[in-house]
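Standup notes
- DV: blocked on the single-chain target, sequence here:
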Amino acid sequence: MSHTLKIGILGGGQLGRMLLQTAANYPVQTFVLENDSAAPAAALCNVFVKGDIRNYEAVYRFGKMVDVLTIEIENVNLEALFKLEEEGLRIFPKPAALKIIQDKGLQKQFYKTHAIPTSDFVLTDNETNLQQHLAFLPAAHKLRTGGYDGKGVEIINNETEFSRAFPEPSVLEKLVDIEMEIAVIVAKNEQGEIAVYPPVEMVFNPVYNLVDYLISPANISAEHTLRAQKIATQVTHAFNSPGLFAVEMFIDKSGAILVNETAPRAHNSGHQSMEGNFSSQYDMQMRVLLNMPLGNTDTICPSLMLNLIGEKGYNGPVQYVGLEKALRLKNTFVHLYGKSETKPGRKMGHVTILRKTTEELKVAAEEVRKHFKVIC
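- DV (later): unblocked, structure below
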């Protein structure tokens, strides 16, 4: 590179923070646009710009400051991104891909158009619209835009639960008889080359509907592994954009693999790659942004990633209880996100554990869970 590349990140949360930690290894200058000057990524970038990532002018002006632009959250102003792209700015993922992913309705239609296996669905405008789809129940009702980390999703089993439905445009997805939830992360560079990570198994918190822990690689057959990676690659190529894509999937009781949704960025399902894989998802994202050779996705050692979330009943300035006990466990790595306030269910950090077997991973995770708490 003839000069130090200026990399812009829209959003200043924990994903941006971890990308910046990796960016420090490369000859770049980092810029972050975020409304909260105390956000996790704010203190780690070279240049912090306070502004709303959903505002046209803020995003457009920010884009004019950098050589390449990426995101750490989808909810950004698309109009500004399309204008910047038209003016020659490198943006990953491309705005056209982001437009589809921002809207769960467009995303489901996209899978159908490209013959990508996914669960049956119908689009709804309001809760009364559901009366036309009684035979479709039980189903998940998902807001088309704005949902994240389990928010914007309601399970509706029958007509008596219609009061829980969303009055805004949503997707009604027929429930799948799930055997396992998995995810595959795929990196794609500007030459069209790809690097595919091994599938991981995700286990969800039943209260907050977000990932409780994941195991990498997933304990599935070689056939399912290849099938999941093939589908994730198909999804990535269909979006026709360089970038990092996390493809979340269901394996149903019959063994079929169905795509749930895609994140066009680093993702919770790839946190363990920081210690468990030769090239982490953040290193891979940097390689894509810098147009450098893609990294090695191979597993170094089986790993378990445990999300650290705010304990029930605690709202206020964060305190970490049992950090030293967690760190005493062998091959256990703690990542705190630098958030000053905790609340029930808020992601405050994660712990990665490396062991030789799944059984050892689960035992160690219970030790961490027993001693390490996020309170206030």
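- Follow-up: The first strand starts at residue 5 and ends at 10.
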